[in-house]
Design goal:
There is one protein chain. By secondary structure, the protein is of the alpha+beta class. The protein has 3 helices and 6 strands, in the order E-H-E-E-H-H-E-E-E. Strands 1-4-5-6-2-3 form a 6-stranded antiparallel beta sheet.
């Protein structure tokens, strides 16, 4: 289901953050999840933010659920301490230019979508943002916008 998890390259930095409506539309940004592990570091809380609601199809929602499960099984979204261990084992994933030196970025794709996971495995702030995009080679297939 998931293709290989990769560390981010500097050209991808913009995909880890929200942009203008025009830019999100051009990039095929479906939306993002924002989450944290609570004060204990062991609970999972996430909110979904839609950027292009017409692209949030039932098939996409099912895939996103599967992606979150897979990332949890890999340890990235299991707990703050697991995320921290994972990030420390990939120092090359540090996002240069981020607001804090402890911000890491990973990207991966499925058959139809690409995902950018920004991790901040520290207490006191949101621990992850998962941005979801249509793959560039599939942008022409997207549903008409409202």
């Amino acid at each position: 289901m998931l293709e290989r998890l990769q560390t981010a390259v500097s050209e991808d930095a913009a995909y880890f953050y929200s942009a203008s409506i025009k830019k999100d539309t051009e990039r095929g940004c479906i939306g993002h999840l924002r989450g944290y592990f609570g004060s204990s570091g062991e609970t999972f809380w996430a909110n979904c933010f839609e950027h292009l609601p017409a692209l949030k199809t039932p098939a996409f929602r099912a895939e996103l659920d599967a992606v979150v499960r897979a990332l949890t099984e890999q340890g990235l979204l299991q707990s703050r301490s697991q995320m921290h261990r994972f990030c420390l084992s990939h120092p090359e994933a540090r996002l240069s230019g981020a607001w804090h030196s402890g911000v890491y970025g990973f990207c991966f794709q499925t058959e139809r979508h690409r995902y950018y996971l920004r991790c901040f495995p520290h207490a006191g702030d949101y621990n992850f943002y998962l941005y979801c995009y249509i793959r560039p080679d599939r942008l022409s297939e997207r549903s008409p916008e409202r």
